[in-house]
Amino acid sequence: MEKVRSADGVLIAYEQSGGGPALILVTGAFNDRASSRPLASVLAADFTVYVYDRRGRGDSEDGDSYAIDREAADLAAVAAEAGGSPLIYGHSSGASIALEAAARGVGMRALAVYEPPYGTNSTFALADELEQLAATGEGSAAAERFMRHAGTPPAMIEQMKSGPYWPHMTGYARTLPYDIRLASVPIPGLSQVASPVLALAGSASPAAAGDGAEAIGAGAPNGRSLVLPEQTHAVATEVIVPVLKEFFLG
After folding, report:
1. Helix (H, G, I), strand (E, B) or coil at 116
2. What digits encode the pLDDT tens for the residues 31-74?
3. What is the rounded CA–CA span in Å between residue 150 and residue 115?
4. For residues 39 and 100, what is the distance between their CA atoms, to the nearest angstrom?
5. pTM more than 0.70
6. Distance (Å, whole) CA 167 – CA 171
7. At 148, is the secondary structure helix, strand, or coil?
8. In whole angstroms, what is the distance from residue 23 CA to residue 88 CA?
C-alpha cells in the first residue's frame, strides 16, 4: 500500500498490481480498494491496475467537509501517481467521480463508466439526512435508508441486517452522503473531453441506467454507449472484463 496527498492535504491510500498500461478502478458505495481486488486481479494480466480507498474509507483520510471537487482531486492525485493520463474505469458513484474529474480537465487516456447513479431521484436533503444519522451513531439506520432509496427490497435488507457482513456495511455510513451528493447533480458537461468515453449499463437494470449511459455517450465528442445483455448494477466480472479490454486495448 502507498499513499498520495490530495489537493486539500488528505492522504489517499492506493495499491497497484500487474503490468501494462495504467488503469485506475474507482468504486461506488459500500466499497473500498479491497472490493476492487477480484476485478483487478483479472485485469492485471493486461494492465497495471491501481485501486484506491476513496476518502473516508479504508486507509484513506477524510476531510472536515465534503465536496465533489475534492473527490475529483483525489482521483487526479492517484492519476498523477500512475504517470498521468491513465485509463479509468468507474462503477456506480465511482463512475460519477470519474466523469466529474474528466469534466474538470483531469487527463485520461480513455474513460469507461458503468451506471453512474444519475436519474435516481437522489437529493441533497437525503444526503443531509444520512449525514445526521451517521453523526449520531445511527450507522445501521443510515445504511438501511440508503439501500431503501436504492430500491433494495425490504425483505432482502432484513436478511442482510442479520448476516455477518452488515457491521462492515454500516462502517461506510459516514461516506454514504458522499454517494448521494454525487447522484444529486446533473451529468457533468463533457463537451471538452477529447478522450474516448464508453458509457455502459445493464439491460436488466432500471431504464434510467440505460438513459444515463446514452446521454453520457452522446455528450462526449468521442463517446458512445453500450447496454450489456442480462446485466444488473452488479455487472459480472466475466462480462465486463472483455468489454474493458476491447475498449482500452482495441
Report:
1. coil
2. 999 999 999 999 999 999 999 999 999 999 999 999 999 999 99
3. 13
4. 23
5. yes
6. 6
7. helix
8. 5
